[in-house]
């Protein structure tokens, strides 16, 4: 039996749910935890399996940051548990996002590059002039499928072998995609049979869900004509609590053995 499940991802794991009684806009604000966490799939899954859950996902993050947090939190958990007592679930974000380490005038932090936010003139204008030029150049020359899909595969393989080396079982899935065809995620790759990625598919087949969180809801629980927000938020950008419940039920089918 597993003693704890570590759940990581972006807003589709952390939950894009804010207590309307709070004067906050950041999903991961500490004062929002007691309202948010019980409503998202990690907590619901833990209840179904009767296993402790640690949800360290962060809204708006990149896969780069997901890898960093899993590694850091795994080392912390290994001090308390043995590797075989830990299970890790990762809901990958869109590969297009990328982290840059910002170090200027005493300010040091990871900044996530959101391509569709940066390409918005209004949001870009809020950046310092030199950063505006950097992002424009980055989008023009370096932001492309070859770069971010390669990074996506490397993130997956690195984290898989890191967890495996510590004797930690794990399950990965894609949460959503920022574009309809902006990159080949595992679900499309399995359908299309891309020859160049066959090795990646072979390695990941035993621990990767072959359907994304978003497509699972679309394909298995189509919108009710009278209630278009039945499983998604009002702007259709994130699953609501009912959507999280559906995904928890789906994941629980894969994980009955860990009880």
Features:
259 residues; alpha/beta; Rossmann fold; four-stranded parallel sheet; two-stranded antiparallel ribbon; 44% helix
Describe the structure.
This protein is an alpha/beta fold and 259 residues long. The protein folds into 2 domains: 4-96 and 146-258, 3-Layer(aba) Sandwich (Rossmann fold); 100-142, no CATH class. Helices cover 44% and strands 14% of the residues. It has 12 helices and 6 strands. The strands form 2 sheets. A 4-stranded parallel sheet has the order 2-1-3-6, sandwiched between helices. A two-stranded antiparallel ribbon has the order 4-5. Helix 4 (63-80) runs parallel beside helix 8. The protein is globular. The N and C termini lie close together (5 Å). The mean pLDDT is 88.
Radius of gyration: 19 Å
Counted by DSSP, the helix tally is 12
The level 1 CATH classification of the largest domain is Alpha Beta
Order of helices and strands: EHHHEHEEEHHHHEHHHH
Low-confidence segments:
none
For the sheet with most strands, the description reads: 4 strands, parallel
What fold name stands as the CATH topology of the largest domain?
Rossmann fold
| Total domains | 2
Percent strand equals 5-15%
Number of strands: 6
Question: Can you name the CATH architecture of the largest domain?
Answer: 3-Layer(aba) Sandwich
Shape: globular
Cα(first) to Cα(last) distance is: 5 Å
Q: Assembly type of the shown chains? A: single chain
Structural class: alpha/beta
What's the name of the CATH homologous superfamily of the largest domain?
SGNH hydrolase
Please bin the fraction of helical residues: 40-55%
- Overall mean pLDDT score? 88
Strand order of the largest sheet: 2-1-3-6
């Amino acid at each position: 039996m597993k003693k704890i499940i570590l759940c990581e991802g972006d807003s589709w794991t952390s939950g894009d749910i804010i207590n309307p009684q709070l004067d906050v806009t950041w999903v991961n604000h500490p004062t929002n935890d007691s309202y948010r966490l019980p409503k998202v799939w990690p907590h619901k899954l833990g209840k179904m399996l009767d296993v402790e859950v640690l949800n360290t996902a962060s809204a708006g993050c990149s896969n780069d940051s997901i890898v960093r947090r899993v590694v850091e939190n795994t080392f912390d958990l290994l001090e308390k548990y043995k590797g075989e007592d830990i299970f890790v679930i990762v809901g990958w974000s869109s590969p297009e996002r990328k982290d840059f380490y910002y170090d200027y005038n005493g300010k040091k932090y990871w900044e996530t590059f959101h391509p569709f936010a940066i390409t918005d003139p209004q949001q870009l204008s809020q950046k310092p002039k030199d950063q505006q030029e950097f992002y424009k150049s980055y989008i023009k020359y370096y932001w492309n499928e070859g770069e971010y899909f390669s990074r996506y595969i490397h993130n997956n393989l690195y984290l898989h072998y890191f967890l495996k080396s510590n004797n930690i079982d794990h399950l990965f899935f894609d949460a959503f995609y920022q574009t309809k065809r902006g990159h080949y995620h595992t679900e499309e790759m399995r359908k299309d049979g891309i020859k160049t990625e066959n090795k990646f598919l072979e390695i990941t087949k035993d621990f990767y869900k072959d359907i994304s969180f978003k497509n699972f809801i679309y394909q298995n629980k189509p919108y009710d004509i009278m209630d278009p927000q039945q499983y998604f938020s009002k702007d259709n950008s994130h699953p609501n609590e009912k959507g999280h419940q559906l995904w928890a039920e789906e994941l629980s089918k894969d994980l009955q053995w860990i009880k």
